[in-house]
């Protein structure tokens, strides 16, 4: 084969590869527009993030507002898919939702299965106990023999506390509001959560006391999650995250839901 023919074949192969990449790159958005809706996985028990309010019968939180804004930019309707931290990766992989938007910590283990956007919130862990607890006043009082610590199954707190606790016992809850019930009933001494959930607890329940984790701990960086292998879709999501930081929408919604202290504006 002559050099000219070889060169021509290389050019053809390049354009075929580029065309194939472009088709793959537009697949997720094409699916979304064909459906006419953005399917968003949320956990409806996440205060200030994606919470279903029984009083108003409406979803509320920063990621409810931001997911609606994202759907509007895509010019499609919004459809919420009930999920939780122990299931959202399966839901993404099975195509039940296009994206998970409910303050998900971008951990190393999760990155093995899903791709994450740029971060938009960052929170340390917090403990919730009863105000009248006989001896738990600070974080150093928690890791003692006889103390029972509750965590929600599938959350970052489950893996973090299983490694961190040396003396206290860990109990893993699966049902909505079970952590709160365990603590209030005395079956557990504390439960571990984050800033959004912790702030809502002390605003709603007069029995709840918030205990921050020691300053040496690394914060949890929250992002949106999508199924792996969709670089085009990830880029689109990142463009949205960048835009809401630049145009002030992240600031507006963070302040609305009292999350400004943990919002990442740059």
Question: Which helices and strands, and how do they pair?
Answer:
Elements (H helix, E strand, L loop, with lengths): L2 H23 L1 H9 L1 E6 L2 E2 L3 E4 L4 E3 L1 H13 L2 E6 L5 H6 L5 E7 L2 H4 L2 E3 L4 E3 L1 E6 L17 E5 L3 H9 L4 E5 L4 H8 L4 E5 H10 L3 E5 L7 E8 L3 H16 L2 H8 L10
Parallel strand pairs: 1-5, 1-6, 10-11, 10-12
Antiparallel strand pairs: 2-3, 3-4, 6-14, 7-14, 8-14, 9-12, 9-13
Commentary on this structure:
With 266 residues, the chain is of the alpha/beta class. The chain has 2 domains: 3-122 and 220-262, D-Maltodextrin-Binding Protein, domain 2 (3-Layer(aba) Sandwich); 125-212, Periplasmic binding protein-like II (D-Maltodextrin-Binding Protein, domain 2, 3-Layer(aba) Sandwich), CATH 3.40.190.10. The chain is built from 10 helices and 14 strands. It has helices at residues 3-25, 27-35, 62-74, 88-93, 108-111, 156-164, 178-185, 195-204, 231-246, 249-256; strands at 37-42, 45-46, 50-53, 58-60, 77-82, 99-105, 114-116, 121-123, 125-130, 148-152, 169-173, 190-194, 208-212, 220-227. The strands form 3 sheets. Strands 1, 5, 6, 7, 8 and 14 form a 6-stranded mixed β-sheet that branches. The protein starts with a helix and ends in a 10-residue tail after the last helix. The model is unreliable at 2-25 (pLDDT under 50).
Keywords:
about 270 residues; alpha/beta; D-Maltodextrin-Binding Protein, domain 2; 5-stranded mixed β-sheet; elongated; disordered N terminus
How would you summarize this macromolecular structure in one to three sentences?
With 266 residues, the chain is an alpha/beta fold. 40% of the residues lie in helices and 26% in strands. It folds into 2 domains: 3-122 and 220-262, 3-Layer(aba) Sandwich (D-Maltodextrin-Binding Protein, domain 2), CATH 3.40.190.10; 125-212, D-Maltodextrin-Binding Protein, domain 2, CATH 3.40.190.10.
């Amino acid at each position: 084969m002559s050099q000219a023919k070889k060169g021509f074949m290389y050019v053809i192969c390049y354009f075929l590869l580029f065309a194939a990449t472009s088709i793959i790159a537009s697949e997720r958005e094409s699916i979304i527009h064909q459906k006419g809706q953005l399917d968003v996985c949320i956990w409806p028990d996440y205060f200030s993030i994606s919470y279903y309010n029984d009083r108003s019968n409406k979803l509320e939180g920063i990621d409810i507002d931001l997911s609606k804004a994202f759907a509007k930019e895509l010019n499609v309707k919004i459809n919420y898919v009930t999920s939780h931290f122990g299931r959202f990766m399966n839901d993404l992989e099975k195509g039940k939702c296009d994206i998970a938007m409910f303050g998900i910590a971008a951990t190393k283990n999760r990155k093995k299965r899903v791709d994450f956007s740029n971060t938009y919130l960052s929170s340390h862990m917090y403990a919730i106990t009863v105000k009248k607890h006989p001896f738990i006043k600070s974080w150093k009082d928690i890791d003692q023999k006889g103390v029972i610590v509750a965590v929600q199954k599938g959350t970052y707190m489950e893996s973090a506390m299983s490694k961190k606790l040396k003396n206290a016992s860990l109990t893993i809850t699966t049902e909505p509001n079970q952590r709160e019930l365990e603590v209030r009933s005395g079956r557990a001494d504390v439960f571990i959560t984050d800033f959004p959930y912790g702030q809502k607890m002390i605003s709603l329940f007069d029995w709840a006391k918030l205990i921050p984790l020691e300053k040496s701990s690394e914060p949890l960086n929250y992002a949106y999650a999508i199924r792996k292998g969709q670089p085009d879709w990830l880029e689109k999501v990142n463009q949205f995250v960048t835009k809401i930081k630049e145009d002030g929408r992240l600031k507006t919604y963070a302040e609305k839901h009292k999350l400004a202290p943990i919002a990442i504006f740059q």
